[in-house]
Amino acid sequence: MSNPLVKCTVDQCTHYMPGDQCMAAKITVYNDEMKGTSSKAQDTLCKAFHHRKTMGDMVGALHNANIGGSVSAAFLEGTQITPAVECFVNNCKHWQNGNYCNAQNIHVTGSNASKTADTDCETFESEK
Ligand code: SF4
Ligand code: SF4
Predict the structure, then answer these.
(1) Per-residue pLDDT of the chain (128 residues; tens, 9 = 90+)
(2) Which ligand is nearest to the CA of 87?
(3) Cα 31 to ligand 1 centre (Å)
(4) What is the per-residue DSSP string for 15-54?
(5) Ligand 2 and 38: CB distance under 6 A
(6) Is the distance from the beta carbon of residue 45 to the nearest atom of ligand 1 less than 6 Å?
(7) Would the CB of 94 count as within 6 Å of ligand 2?
(8) To which H or E segment does residue 124 belong?
(9) Is 92 in the pocket of ligand 2 (CB under 6 A)?
(10) In 3-state terms, what secondary structure has residue 126?
């Protein structure tokens, strides 16, 4: 199994931390709803996105917070915190059986995002 280092610039998300880090324990990347497959980065989304302004979403965000030993260990070691990545965009060339992503790094974007569909995995590259 492989796991990319996640850089995220979606500062509207409750999981976002300055330094473009993602504090979620796990993120899941999907194709946008209504699209069976993705042909460009804008067709993908980060399902773990939780908008900062929605109180109800805070519960979900806290539930998915990366507050276990791995975070404190990462702080102590000075290494970057990064979530586990599961991905269902199976026509991306970085996608691997088991819903893994074999890219070294991924970049999640979405300026002024207010819903999951506003976020994208910029690292998506179509297989074709
Ligand atoms: S949009 Fe996704 S990758 Fe970015 S901080 Fe939120 S959960 Fe993490
Ligand atoms: S680079 Fe491709 S396989 Fe990796 S998370 Fe993004 S869309 Fe999924």
Answers:
(1) 679 999 999 999 999 999 999 999 999 999 988 777 899 999 999 999 999 875 555 555 566 776 655 555 555 566 678 999 999 999 999 999 999 999 999 999 999 999 999 999 999 999 86
(2) 2
(3) 15
(4) TEETTTEE-BSEEEEEEPTT-SS-SSGGGEEETT--BTT-
(5) no
(6) no
(7) yes
(8) none
(9) yes
(10) strand
